[in-house]
Amino acid sequence: MGLKERVQDCLGSDIIELVEYRGDLSVEVPRTKIVEILTKLKEAEGLKFDFLSDIVGVDNSVLWEKKKAAKKKKAKGDEEQEQEPEDLGPPPPRFEIVYLLLSLSSNERLRVKIRVPEEDPVVDSITKIWKGANWPEREIYDLFGIKFRGHPNLKRLLMWEGFPAHPLRKDYPLEGQGEERTFDECKYF
Amino acid sequence: MGLQAYTGPGWLLTKAEQLINWGRSRSPWPLPYGTACCGIEMMCALAASYDMARFGAERPSFSPRQADVLIEAGTITKKMVPVLRRIYDQMAEPKWVIAMGACACTGGVFRTYSTHQGIGDVIPVDIYIPGCPPRPEGLLYALLKLIDKIQKDHPLRRQVVEALGG
After folding, report:
1. Which chain A residues contact residue B82 at CB under 8 A?
2. Do A156 and A147 touch, CB atoms closer than 8 A?
3. Does B81 touch chain A (CB under 8 A)?
4. Considering only CB atoms, which chain A residues are within 8 Å of B83?
5. pLDDT greater than 80 at residue A188
6. Measured between alpha carbons, how far is residue B5 from residues A69, A81, A175, B13, B128 in Å?
7. Which runs of consecutive H residues, i.e. helices, occur in A80-173?
8. Beta pairing, strands A95-102 & A24-28
9. Could you give the residue ranges of the DSSP H alpha helices within chain A?
10. 3-class DSSP state for residue A128?
11. Are the C-beta atoms of residues A185 and A164 closer than 8 Å to each other?
12. pLDDT for the residue numbered A81
């Protein structure tokens, strides 16, 4: 039985979308059930995704704007009239969190995606399943501002404490907004 | 260095400043502060094939208290800036700074929110080495330039000026 079928068997109706692209399997699941689903994937016989490679955050806002613009341009070119594309639907939730799993016994990989809306950027922490999720979750909190419920030490990881923004959000300018770290904030010595 | 040797019991005649400069310029012990790929080139310059010890940079001192030259090799992030300043402050006088590589000089390619755009506004830099990264020869050339600079220094005159409050 292929990996796709086994994942389908294991997760059943929790799957929102299951895509295979060039041999890589991605599964999108509901945000609220992420802990339960990852536990299942870790423990299910025949899957055993027991290794968490990484957790990645994605800000989709600009991507969707670009898609919309491209579609609009195409429609304009085809029919010489301005019209809103209809089949694109409402914008998807702004953020995405991607869990990259690996099964050490079968050497198979799986992407698990959840979507996180901008107005309520809270996700359950998976540090109870994998302790190694601690720092990746802190990094995502630092750079995207997504909070992890139940995380033991949710502090900034890369930027210094007191940094006023979340720099990997697409509306943050690349060159920053002139933030500087002051001497008083540095308490290493 | 304006040194005159008299025959006989072995008298040497020179100026105190020149003697001090001679000592300082012949033993500029470096504090290696490698934060990025320039650090690798610096290690290469310190190791056997380039052998920076030939010019008196004999012992890389990882304690700022026993170092004379801070070789800042690599990117300085904004998070790191107070740390760099603190390390510079911990070094005993006299002290010099070499900014090695494009990142240390100007921020280099990293014109971003996290990178400090050149260390010159945090600590006083004596020698800038461009390059990404500069070759070990570049660092040796900078060290020779620094030795020239130390030899032109007036340590006693500076102390008199400082004592007079200027």
Report:
1. 181-183, 185-186
2. no
3. yes
4. 186, 188
5. no
6. 84, 96, 61, 7, 38
7. 134-144
8. unpaired
9. 3-11, 34-43, 61-79, 134-144
10. coil
11. no
12. 54
Q: Quick one: DSSP state of residue B29?
A: -
Within 8 A by CB and 6+ apart from A82, the residues are A72, A76
Query: Under a CB-based contact definition with an 8 Å cutoff, are residues A95 and A60 in contact?
Result: yes
With the C-alpha atoms ordered B134, B139, B141, B147, is the resulting torsion angle positive or negative? positive
Distance from C-alpha of A179 to C-alpha of B102, rounded to nearest angstrom: 22
Q: Is 50 exceeded by the pLDDT of residue A20?
A: yes
Enter the DSSP assignment of B115.
B
Task: Report ipTM (2 d.p.).
Answer: 0.74
Q: Give the number of other CB atoms < 10 A from CB of residue A155.
A: 9
Contacts of A161 in chain B (CB under 8 A): none
Which tens digits make up the pLDDT trace of B106-161? Answer: 988 999 999 999 898 889 999 999 999 999 999 999 999 999 999 998 888 766 76
Segment B57-77, tens digit of pLDDT: 888 889 999 999 999 999 999
What per-residue confidence (pLDDT) applies to A189? 43
Inspect the interface and report whether the beta carbons of A174 and B85 lie closer than 8 Å.
no
Average pLDDT, integer, range A77-100: 73
